[in-house]
């Protein structure tokens, strides 16, 4: 476990030291350099510097900035720990960010077993008043074929059941309820997951500060039963999660507006987020910057906005759920997408109307798999399957023509309107604003994992896949630029997705 806050300061320093236009005409070298650069940054939490204004300025594009204030959870300031009163120091897998914190001395109390039998059941926090709560979550492998609908013409999902990256997102309960009744700390035993996968998971990441320090431990291989036995015989535990809240921090979103040569009052919004905990989450800016260089030489017909939001890893502080960080920007800048009648942005007539959006996230992820029986978690050396979305039939047709995956024989386009899960990432805000879109999200199981300092994250990136995805995006974006708004179509206002989620 590393000191995240310190990492953020190192980043701020590196931004000051490394600012420069520096781009190469050799795209392979450029990609490799960007990947190397990201690997050197490691954790980039919300509030860390935003990629990469200097490259946009170097292309003579105007750079606009929103500095958004928020309260930053700075921690852990020391190694989180759980010590039982029989002297055992339990291995801590991870901490729950913004859950709560202790001082350096930690908190202690009786260990109370409030494990639940189903994920829906709310732990009986009351039982653990003034004590340390022991509860549990269990990873449930999901078969993509069961939850994602593909457009006609796409092969069905055939990847089999795999571990979703964000199990803890939906499984960890609302900890405010625990804080309200005076639980001193919460220990989550995480079951059915390899230790390597659980270690360092930065999850759930969608909560505001809740007021009760919470740690994860491995719960498989008899560990949960062991802790339950300890609770049953009246054991005590001391829990330390040293952190502090820092008010008046800020997180930056940057964007550029490249005026169209022809359709000046229509816009296309291409976005990504810039904060993340590893090299895959997030690297989408590389595609946007590659396209920016192309647009500098060949301007678009339609006004094109490249948007780099810097609040994804803590979006709840910036927009009311289910909105996300991009929603904050959409809410603040209706003049850039909402159409005629907007009072602002007089330089564009106050009437830009977005006809399409496109979100790029998690390029080129290498797939890792787990073998729970042997507690093994390992790189398969294969590319993570692409989760490629198109929200209208014409955009699906466009992808079928222009998209080449890392595996050139498989272009699988998913229809978010009829899929069960809400689309992850910063694409969802376009849906809420009815902007048709094409987007890519890959969800490797380690998406939210903070890797050990000595781990070289470059090995998580399939450079050839990054390259083919960026080339595909550039073809698709050019093709969208050639289409009329009518031809792009409107996304459906019905469908499973809307029934379930709005
Ligand atoms: C911007 O990107 C270049 C690589 O293209 C890198 O050298 C530079 O450090 C980056 N700057 C920031 C502030 O991220
Ligand atoms: C581009 O860069 C790659 C990686 O550094 C190198 O292997 C390749 O030879 C370069 N190509 C050209 C045309 O310079
Ligand atoms: C907690 O652990 C028990 C025993 O392994 C299991 O039956 C139960 O499903 C778990 N609860 C959750 C929410 O994962
Ligand atoms: C969590 O519970 C508290 C009540 O203690 C409530 O105010 C809050 O809205 C809940 N948060 C979420 C995300 O449901
Ligand atoms: C202390 O209790 C834990 C949890 O039951 C157990 O795993 C460990 O072996 C015990 N250590 C000693 C020294 O008894
Ligand atoms: C109580 O549990 C602790 C932790 O598992 C263990 O070390 C200790 O021996 C147990 N004591 C009794 C009396 O069972
Ligand atoms: C854009 O401008 C054209 C010509 O000035 C006009 O016909 C069209 O209605 C405008 N579109 C929007 C969305 O305002
Ligand atoms: C992946 O590649 C590495 C390095 O070549 C190798 O050691 C490892 O066995 C490979 N893993 C699998 C699952 O093939
Ligand atoms: C794609 O399909 C062609 C023709 O069936 C085959 O020769 C090629 O090996 C396949 N490529 C991959 C990466 O599977
Ligand atoms: C695209 O629209 C779909 C619904 O049509 C939505 O689920 C998704 O989040 C949107 N994605 C992007 C990138 O805008």
Automatic annotation (TrEMBL):
Residues 1-20 form the signal peptide. Keywords: Signal. This is Uncharacterized protein. It comes from Salinomyces thailandicus.
């Amino acid at each position: 476990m590393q000191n995240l806050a310190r990492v953020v300061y190192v980043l701020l320093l590196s931004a000051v030291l490394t600012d420069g236009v520096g781009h190469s005409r050799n795209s392979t070298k450029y990609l490799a350099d960007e990947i190397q650069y990201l690997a050197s940054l490691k954790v980039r939490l919300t509030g860390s510097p935003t990629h990469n204004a200097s490259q946009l300025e170097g292309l003579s594009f105007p750079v606009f900035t929103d500095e958004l204030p928020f309260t930053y959870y700075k921690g852990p300031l020391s190694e989180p720990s759980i010590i039982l009163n029989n002297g055992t120091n339990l291995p801590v897998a991870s901490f729950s960010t913004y859950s709560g914190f202790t001082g350096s001395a930690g908190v202690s109390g009786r260990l109370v077993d409030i494990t639940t039998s189903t994920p829906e059941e709310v732990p009986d926090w009351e039982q653990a008043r003034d004590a340390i709560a022991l509860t549990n979550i269990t990873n449930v492998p999901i078969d993509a074929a069961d939850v994602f609908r593909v457009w006609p013409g796409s092969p069905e999902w055939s990847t089999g059941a795999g571990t979703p990256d964000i199990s803890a997102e939906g499984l960890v309960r609302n900890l405010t309820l625990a804080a309200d009744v005076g639980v001193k700390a919460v220990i989550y035993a995480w079951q059915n997951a390899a230790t390597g996968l659980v270690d360092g998971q930065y999850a759930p990441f969608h909560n505001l500060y809740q007021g009760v320090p919470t740690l994860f431990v491995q719960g498989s291989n008899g560990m949960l039963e062991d802790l339950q036995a300890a609770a049953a015989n009246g054991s005590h535990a001391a829990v330390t999660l040293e952190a502090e809240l820092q008010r008046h921090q800020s997180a930056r979103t940057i964007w550029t507006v490249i005026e169209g040569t022809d359709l000046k009052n229509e816009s296309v919004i291409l976005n990504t987020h810039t904060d993340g905990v590893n090299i895959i989450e997030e690297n989408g800016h590389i595609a946007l910057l590659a396209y920016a260089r192309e647009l500098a030489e060949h301007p678009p017909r339609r006004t094109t906005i490249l948007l780099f939001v810097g609040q994804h890893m803590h979006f709840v502080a910036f927009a009311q759920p289910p909105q996300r960080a991009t929603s904050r920007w959409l809410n603040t800048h209706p003049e850039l997408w909402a159409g005629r009648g907007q009072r602002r942005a007089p330089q564009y007539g106050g009437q830009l109307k977005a006809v399409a959006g496109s979100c790029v996230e998690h390029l080129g992820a290498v797939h890792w798999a787990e073998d729970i029986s042997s507690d093994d978690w390992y790189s398969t050396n294969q590319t993570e399957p692409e989760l490629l979305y198109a929200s209208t039939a014409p955009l699906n047709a466009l992808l079928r023509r222009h998209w080449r995956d890392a595996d050139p024989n498989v272009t699988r386009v998913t229809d978010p309107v009829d899929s069960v899960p809400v689309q992850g990432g910063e694409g969802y805000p376009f849906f809420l604003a009815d902007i048709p879109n094409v987007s890519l999200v890959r969800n490797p199981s380690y998406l939210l994992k903070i890797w050990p300092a000595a781990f070289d994250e470059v090995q998580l990136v399939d450079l050839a896949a990054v390259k083919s995805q960026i080339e595909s995006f550039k073809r698709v974006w050019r093709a969208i630029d050639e289409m009329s708004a009518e031809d792009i179509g409107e996304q459906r206002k019905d469908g499973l997705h809307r029934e379930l989620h709005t």
